[in-house]
């Protein structure tokens, strides 16, 4: 028996579940498919990362009813300090005088006194979204994988390895960078490896972080200390693949010795909380965001380096745009999976996704090196931006997702 629904979403990650909630709360019937048991993804050992959530994206969660659950688990980022430096060693040069200092209070009159962003552990995000999915009665088929796909002029049908057959006007790929639906559709994907991996750990600190995030650009890659609740921090330490693997195996005291060589001791004694995690870093960008009755969003459409903390935010912006386009089309009686409707979504998101991906790629190449010509130029650039208020405020508002043609969910408005 074929089950009919309005939207099939392949991938019950953070973007996929957010989309399902937005659609269900506006009268559509989505079904989520996930290759892994969803409950496995809620375990503390599944994903050690925390995400910097733009304040506009957090507004979306408030509208969808999960912001209230996440608020006590979220840490405000009221300031961001960005500096450029050298790797430690006997011949280490003096610290460079250039830096960037962003303060939320500078844009409080336009942001409604919101912070620059919120740091939230991914496991908490997944748990809040999954609880919302269950409360909304949204069907989740997991573990399950799509085996065959059939598309006709009015619908698209998928057969799962569980034997289930689903049919809908629209299929959404939210599976991540290794999207099988993207491959099935023949959508070309531009991808390369940065030769870096990020070692991610959570630590508890002696001295308060005061809601300040730090990003320190070293020749081996960016090094970030991101504030969490309970005076903890998420450390994202980028190194070459080999060095990152070595860091995973060293004793805690050696790990912290290397850590303090790079960032000093101003945060006091540090205690490791939980295991270390490692993630290879690269870029992935699909050439199209839709084909036929398939739409891509999140990492299926674009995966970027975490240097600017925009990866999940791009996916959540995709969700807000796709949900608004699809819901408005459904209310007008249009075919929600048609080329006309999906091109509206792609046109809305294409420029932001491409420019952010290219800008992030440029930052990686600009800062992850010790070029004697580039170093003073990038330092000068940071110094200029830091001294000109209009530049600082633009970058803060852009990082907060509050620039451009915003979907209603990102404005905190219901659809």
From TrEMBL:
It comes from Asticcacaulis machinosus. The keyword Oxidoreductase applies. Its cofactor is FAD. Keywords: FAD, Flavoprotein, Monooxygenase, Oxidoreductase, Ubiquinone. InterPro entries: FAD-bd, FAD/NAD-bd_sf, Ubi_Hdrlase_CS, UbiH/COQ6, UbiH/COQ6_monooxygenase. This is UbiH/UbiF/VisC/COQ6 family ubiquinone biosynthesis hydroxylase. NCBIfam families: Ubi-OHases. It comes from the Bacteria. It holds the Pfam family FAD_binding_3. Residues 5-331 form the FAD-binding domain. PANTHER family: UBIQUINONE BIOSYNTHESIS MONOOXYGENASE COQ6, MITOCHONDRIAL. The keyword Oxidoreductase applies. Pathway: Cofactor biosynthesis; ubiquinone biosynthesis. Belongs to the UbiH/COQ6 family.
């Amino acid at each position: 028996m074929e089950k009919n629904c309005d939207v099939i979403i392949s991938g019950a990650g953070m973007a996929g579940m957010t989309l399902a909630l937005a659609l269900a709360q506006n009268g559509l019937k989505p079904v989520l498919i996930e290759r892994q048991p969803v409950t496995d993804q809620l375990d503390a050992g599944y994903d050690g990362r925390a995400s910097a959530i733009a304040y506009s994206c957090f507004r979306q969660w408030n509208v969808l009813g999960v912001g209230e659950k996440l608020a006590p688990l979220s840490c405000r980022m009221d300031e961001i300090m960005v500096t450029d430096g050298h790797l430690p060693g006997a011949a280490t040069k003096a610290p460079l005088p250039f830096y960037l200092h962003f303060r939320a209070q500078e844009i409080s009159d336009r942001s409604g006194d919101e912070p620059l962003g919120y740091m939230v552990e991914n496991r908490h995000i997944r748990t809040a979204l999954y609880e919302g999915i269950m409360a909304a009665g949204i069907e989740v088929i997991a573990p399950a994988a799509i085996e065959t796909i059939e598309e006709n002029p009015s619908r698209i049908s998928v057969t799962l390895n569980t034997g289930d057959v689903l049919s809908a006007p629209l299929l959404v790929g939210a599976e991540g960078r290794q999207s099988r639906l993207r491959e099935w559709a023949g959508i070309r994907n531009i991808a390369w490896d940065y030769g870096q991996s990020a070692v991610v750990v959570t630590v508890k600190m002696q001295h308060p972080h005061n809601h300040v995030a730090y990003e320190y650009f070293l020749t081996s890659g960016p090094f970030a200390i991101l504030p969490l609740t309970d005076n903890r921090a998420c450390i994202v330490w980028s190194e070459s693949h080999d060095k990152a693997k070595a860091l995973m195996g060293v004793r805690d005291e050696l790990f912290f010795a290397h850590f303090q060589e790079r960032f000093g001791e101003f945060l006091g004694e540090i205690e490791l909380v939980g295991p270390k995690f490692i993630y290879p870093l690269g870029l992935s960008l699909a050439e199209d965001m839709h084909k036929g009755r398939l739409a891509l969003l999140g990492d299926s459409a674009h995966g970027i380096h975490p240097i600017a903390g925009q990866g999940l935010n791009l996916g959540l912006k995709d969700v807000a745009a796709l949900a608004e386009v699809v819901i408005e089309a459904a209310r007008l009686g249009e075919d929600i999976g048609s080329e006309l409707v999906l091109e509206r979504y792609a046109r809305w998101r294409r420029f932001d996704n491409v420019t952010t991906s290219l800008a992030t790629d440029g930052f990686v190449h600009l800062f992850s090196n010790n070029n004697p010509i580039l170093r003073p130029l990038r330092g000068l650039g940071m110094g200029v931006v830091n001294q000109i208020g209009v530049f600082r405020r633009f970058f803060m508002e852009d990082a907060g997702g509050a620039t451009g043609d915003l979907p209603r969910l990102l404005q905190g408005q219901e659809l």
